[in-house]
Specification:
By secondary structure, the chain is of the alpha/beta class. The chain folds into two domains: 207 residues, Isopropylmalate Dehydrogenase (3-Layer(aba) Sandwich), CATH 3.40.718; 143 residues, Isopropylmalate Dehydrogenase, CATH 3.40.718.10. The chain is built from eleven helices and twelve strands. The strands form two sheets. It has a ten-stranded mixed β-sheet, sandwiched between helices. Strands 6-7 form a two-stranded antiparallel sheet. α1 links the parallel β1 and β2. α1 crosses α10 and α10 packs across α11. The structure holds 3-isopropylmalic acid and manganese (II) ion. The site of 3-isopropylmalic acid has 5 residues, from α4.
Amino acid sequence: MKTYKIGVIPGDGTGPEVVREGLKVLEAVSKQHGFSFETVNYPFGGEHYKKTGETLSDSALDEFRTLDALYLGAIGHPDVKPGILEQGILLRTRFALDQYINLRPVKLYPNVWTPVKDKGPEDIDFVVVRENTEGLYAGTGGFLRRGTPHEVAVQESVNTRMGVERCLRYAFEYTRKRNKENKLTLCGKTNVLTYAFDLWERVFHAVGKEYSDVTTDYAHVDATTMWMVKNPEWFDVIVTDNMFGDIITDLGAMVQGGMGIAAGGNINPEGVSMFEPIGGSAPKYTGMNVINPLAAIGAMVMMLEILGETRAATAAENATIKALETGKIKSMSAGKMGLTTSEVGDLVVSFL
Ligand code: IPM
Ligand code: MN
C-alpha cells in the first residue's frame, strides 16, 4: 500500500481548524481508495515567529524536499508586520521548492451564492494557471536616494524564457488534460508591457504550435477582469504572469463564492507541491469553530489529484458537491454557515 508523507503547516488564526477538516476528509478517502498517509507537523507561522524570531528554517526546507506534498492552513498574524511571514514562509517555500505554477480553479458549486447576477455553475468553471516564481515577485529593483524628495523606487518584472516557457507548457498540457473546451487564454498587457508580454506572446504562439488541438486566445488583464464578471463562461483555462495572476484570482475567488471556498496549489510538477485555502488566517474567528473549511477541503482535493489519486480526488469533490446540495450549508462566510466548521467536514465525509 502506498503511503504518502504529507507535511502540514496549520499556521495562524483559523488555519489549524480548517486543516483539521481537510485531513479528516483525507483520512476517510484514503481508507476507501487503498492508500495511507503520514503527516509531519511544522509549527511555522506568526506565533512561532514571535517566540523564536524564525520564519522558516533551512533544515525544514530540506525536509520539505523529502515529502510528497505540503498542506498549509493560513499565514498571517495581527502582531507581525505585514510582509514578514508572507515572504519568509509562503514566498520562500514557493521559490526554494521551485513551485513555478500557482493553480487556481474558479468553480461555482451548486447552492453557492455568487455576486455575479444571472450566472450559475454552468457559467463559472475555469482555471487560472499563474506563473509563481518570477515577474514582479522576483524581488529585483531597489531604492535610490531613499527618504529624500528625489527618491527613486524601481521594482522590476523578471521574465525568463525558461520560466515563461515552462509555465505556458504546463498551461497547454493542463488545458488538454482538462478537455473541457480545449481553450487557453493568455492574459497579459501587450499594449503597454511591450517587453515582458512580447516574450510571453511569442512563446505562447511558438509552444501553441505543438498543441494544435488547443484553441488559443488572448485578453489584456483589464479586459480579463471585465469578462470574468460579464462573461465568465468564455474562459476555460487562463494563463498569466505572477502579479496579474495574483490579482485576477482574488476576483475569481469572489466570483466562485468567496474566500471560504477558494483553493489553490503551488505546484512543482517535478517536485514537491504545496496546497492551501487562499483565504487568510481570519484572526477574529480563531478557535470559534465557525470558519468555512471547504476551501481547505478543496485544496486537499487538488493535492490528491497531483499525487495521482485521481479517483479519491473525484470522490472527495463529489462529496463536497453533495454536501452543498443538501442546502444545509447556508453561506460560505464565517459565522453564517448555519453549521460549525467540524460539522461541515463531517457532512462532506458522510457522502464519501
Ligand atoms: C496569494 C497571496 C500571496 C501572493 C501573498 C500572501 C504573498 O496573496 O497566494 O495569492 O501575493 O502570492
Ligand atoms: Mn493573492
